[in-house]
Amino acid sequence: MSEDWVSKKLGLHPEDGRYDSGLEESVKSLQEEAELRLPSASDEGPRGSDSAPDAGDKECEAQDLERVDSTYGSVSLTESLPPTCLPPTEAPESSTQDSDQLEGLTYLSEEGDTLLHLSIIHSIPELSLYFISVAPKDVLDIQNDLYQSALHLAVYLGQVQVVEALVEKDVNLELQDRKGDTALHLACEKEHLDCAQILLRGPRGPQNLQMQNWKGLSCLHIATLRRNKALISLLLESGADVNSQEGTSGKTPLHLAVEMLDRSLLQHLLQHRPKVDAFMYNGCTPLHLAVGRKDAGLARLLCQAGADVLQRNREGDTPQDLAEGNNQLLAFLPFDDLKISGKPVVTSA
Questions:
Q1: Residue 294's Cα: distance from chain center in Å?
Q2: Is residue 69 part of a domain?
Q3: 126 and 175 share a domain?
């Protein structure tokens, strides 16, 4: 590991004007200690990544957002931390080095990124893991100007080792970014199953799986929209509600599967015994949606699962009403006097 490896990898140089006058010394101090803990690191260091999450959005929207962790933006970063986060002071000769280390750990860029954020963005896992090992939990939970914590970025980029290290340090799993997404929302959106598994077995157990982002979607809704059956099963086994309604129109995962005309996904969800006649806010059941989309295959699956063909929505229409004139659909929605609450009574000869 060369003398300026950390600074070069993060793209931080004194002439950039992106950090205060003590940062260079702080980075060097961190580097020296990292060399003792990471003897296997090469002089060239690990490869960086050229991509960063939401780079375009970050430039356009960062100026309009207000930081939620404003206490970390003060001039004296050490004053804003609780006493338990401060380095030990028993050895007077090391107090300067400890102070420099804390200053480096709590450094914030112009975009509100800590050095941990930057090491994750630039794909330097050795440095990320070192920071996580020495930093207090309060520092690990810092959110940048896009409200992204280090955990958000590590999950977004699929850095499994970093995600696992952060979860083991008991970071806050329910922090939400500017879109209202938790790290688990991002794991479902990016279909990072391994990251989702780690997040769901945190030391305090999984987060509140009913949490919705600003679009009204829970993690289960996102996994359903991604048609990812493995993620759906993982979330349901971890306690997600198969009948949960998204916040805009009240659709359940069953409604979403019908809307996407995905029979395989619908069959998978039906195996988890959802409420087949769940209502949207307008009173429509999944069968209303299937008939409205003239999909006889979906209608058949729902009827076989016991869907009520006479259930009325807010406008007073039943699935039978919506199927009028469509003989293919009416074959699954027969007019039959032997029905109770819309369900046919099956008799044996």
A1: 35
A2: no
A3: no
